[in-house]
Design a protein that fits this description.
single chain, mainly alpha, 1 helix, membrane
Amino acid sequence: MAKEESRPQQNTAPPNKAGLLRLLLWRLPWHIAGILLASLFLSLMVEYAGLIFWWPEQGA
């Protein structure tokens, strides 16, 4: 008796793209928040680097 090999079914359908409503209400706010937080972090790092390397005396 020959054994049948069971092959897993492959999903050939392309993944669903997010609709405009989901993009505007979910993905876009998270992208904007991420960009704002990254820019805040970068500006703080530049400020602290300036305080350490260019203005070492206190109160300058």
